[in-house]
Design brief:
5-stranded mixed β-sheet, single chain
């Protein structure tokens, strides 16, 4: 119980690791089984017991998952959970220590080389001293299946500053140019790592409106983000990873339900913290002046105990946990259960 008071980059190195080389054990994903019989046909991406070690540090630990055509999938995890390492392996930028990754039925390198994947990563700079239009034209010209440059500029929302130099753009504009490079070709899978970093609220809204158009045309989208409200609003499916292992896999509603707790909020004067800490079902307590916020595994029992003790709370609200609260509950539970299981943090 917790208490709080107050674009097209390829690696020649890539090859599938030999079978049996992994030593990790995949944690059972909770929530609805989205990897199973509900889907027909071939998956776009499959991870099969994938591990990645850096010396004694295990960054990815027996990760198994599938992505299916037309899905929008959010990859969530705290800092050091293994998100970026997993995306790097998917994009053939790092070689797995064990297990196997398949993309469109082949190894990732060949899928990327054939232009079936577009990617927007956190790392890597953009070419300076050229205009946005010149950079997009260059990348489109190298793509096996290019899209007309003017179309890409409009779809990425960057036509208005296409003739500005790349090294004179704001942070949000730079992110939009990275996105344009990811969609400069007719790719079937788009992979985005923290795509809306440095974007303002309106730019983020326009970005996701553009992404909905991409998905509506049949593309599969995988994105990692720290903005949980984006995952809640944009994703069909959410994958929660921690310590390089898959903890939960389901729709946003299923992930919220997975936390197994309700949220109670009310005002109380005076606040008796010792009493509140003893309420049945209490998982988390937060007090700010006269505002009390509780997470409880049995909201009815918690509220009845408060009333039976003679307290009369005001402005009572009872509801399900939001995605952020559910995410924190899921990862905190894993940290408590496996706090000593790893020597170091994942990447």
């Amino acid at each position: 119980m917790n208490r709080l008071v107050r674009g097209d980059v390829m690696s020649q190195e890539y090859a599938s690791a030999p079978a049996g080389a992994h030593a990790g054990t995949q944690a059972t994903a909770t929530g609805t089984a989205h990897d199973g019989a509900a889907h027909t046909g071939a998956s776009v991406v499959s991870f099969e017991s994938v591990t990645k070690n850096y010396g004694n540090l295990r960054a990815v630990d027996g990760l198994s998952l599938n992505l299916w055509p037309g899905e929008t999938v959010a990859l969530l995890g705290p800092n050091g959970a293994g998100k970026s390492t997993s995306l790097d392996m998917l994009l053939a930028l790092r070689k797995p220590t064990g297990g196997r990754i398949r993309m469109f039925g082949s190894d990732p390198y060949h899928a990327i080389k054939s232009g079936r994947v577009g990617a927007m990563l956190q790392s890597g700079g953009l070419m300076p001293e050229v205009t946005v239009r010149e950079l997009v034209t260059l990348v489109a010209g190298l793509h096996p299946r290019p899209i007309p440059v003017e179309t890409t500029l409009k779809r990425a929302g960057i036509a208005g500053f296409a003739d500005q130099r790349v090294d004179r753009l704001s942070g949000g504009q730079t992110q939009r140019v990275r996105f344009a490079l990811a969609i400069a070709g007719d790719s079937e899978l788009i992979v985005l790592d923290e795509p809306t970093t440095a974007m303002d609220v309106e730019t983020r809204r326009l970005f996701w409106a553009n992404m909905k158009v991409e998905v509506a045309e049949g593309r599969t989208l995988l994105f990692a983000t720290h903005y949980l409200e984006e995952a809640d609003q944009a994703a069909d499916r959410i994958l929660v990873i921690n310590r390089g292992r898959l903890l939960a896999d389901g729709t946003p509603a299923e992930i919220k339900a997975r936390a197994g707790a309700k949220r109670l909020s009310f005002r109380l004067d005076p606040v008796d913290e010792p009493f509140l800490l003893g309420l049945p079902g209490l998982v988390n307590l937060e007090v700010r002046h006269d505002l009390v916020q509780i997470q409880s595994t049995d909201s009815d029992a918690t509220l009845y105990a408060l009333l039976d003790a003679g307290y009369r709370p005001r402005e009572i609200e009872v509801g399900s946990l939001g995605l952020e609260q559910a995410f924190l509950a899921i990862t905190a539970e894993d940290d408590r259960a496996n706090g000593d299981a790893h020597t170091g943090e994942a990447v």
